[in-house]
Amino acid sequence: MKRLIFTLLISMVTAGVFAQITPTDSTNTAKADSVKAKKGVKVKLGFGEDAAQVSVNDKDTVEHTSKAPGFSFGLTFTRFDLGLATLIDNGSFTLSPNNQFLNYRQWKTSNVGFDVIQFGYRFNSSFRIYVAGGFDWTHIRLRNDITILRNQPVLTYQTDDIHYSKNRFSSSYLRIPLGFDFRSHEDASGRRFHIVAGPDIGILLNGRVKQISEENGKQKFDDNYHYAKLRYGMYARLGYGFMGIFAKYYMNDMFENSPDQKGLKNFSFGLSIGW
């Protein structure tokens, strides 16, 4: 059921993106993305960086103000990612025998993240670059009744005699993405298409095992669990208005100083809100 809901959600968002596209004639193009509004009213259209102040002229036509080149810096809450995480074992979506203890529930293994600070430079209304800072979590929902052990020389686990209704193996990172943001002109509704891509660096904040069982209740164990202290990869975002989709792939191994996990990497994809 969750698989169906998630698939429908992505389909609805994608359909909504294209359904909101309205064709413009040559007159509208020549007027530089003008929209109709009541005379004497000032409105602000868009979301976040896309918000544009507009003013009314004598012909009841509202013109979007073009943004001049310049730097920007400040606190933000944007690029909220909610998606699925997938482990890739030496190029395969099937875990090798050495990694079978990490067998996980695909539709409950998630990636969540968002940015809280940003510094950028806008070249024009169609292109900008930025570097941001935020947080990123990957939650692996394990199938097996095991416990990943802390303070071990390599990634180590033990098999338990109790059943866990939840057995989650997580990592949290400070994420630092560099974005190259290509944007279309605003359409009649004040929205844009976005294509954003760039490198992403992550600095490990913590690893955690969270378990729930009838015997022990809720338990949490924190450690670095040999997660890579520094991870690096690439990401891409595609969207319209304030909503879109994302994909992230990290090129270095998920775990370090643990030879059996060599070649195990992380790939995530899903929905993204805000630009």
Descriptive account of the structure:
A hairpin with a 3-residue loop joins strand 11 and strand 12 (217-223). This protein has helices at 2-19, 26-30; strands at 35-36, 44-45, 52-56, 61-64, 70-89, 110-124, 127-141, 146-148, 157-159, 166-183, 193-213, 217-223, 230-240, 243-250, 264-273. It has 275 residues and is mainly beta. It contains two helices and 15 strands. Strands 5-6-7-10-11-13-14-15 form an eight-stranded antiparallel beta barrel. The chain has a four-stranded antiparallel β-sheet with strand order 1-4-3-2, with no helix packed on it. The longest helix has 18 residues, at 2-19. The radius of gyration is 23 Å and the shape is elongated. It has one domain (2-30, 68-273). Residues 1-48 and 50-64 have low confidence and may be disordered.
Q: Give helix % range.
A: under 10%
Structural category is mainly beta
Choose one word for the global shape.
elongated
Average predicted confidence as pLDDT? 83
For the sheet with most strands, the description reads: 8 strands, antiparallel, barrel
One letter per element, helices H and strands E, the order comes to HHEEEEEEEEEEEEEEE
Radius of gyration: 23 Å
What is the CA-CA span between the terminal residues?
A: 30 Å
How many domain modules? 1
What's the number of helices? 2
Give the strand order of the largest sheet, numbering strands 1, 2, ... along the chain: 5-6-7-10-11-13-14-15
The parts where pLDDT drops under 50 for at least 5 residues are: 1-48, 50-64
The counted number of beta strands is 15
Q: Beta-sheet strand percentage?
A: over 45%
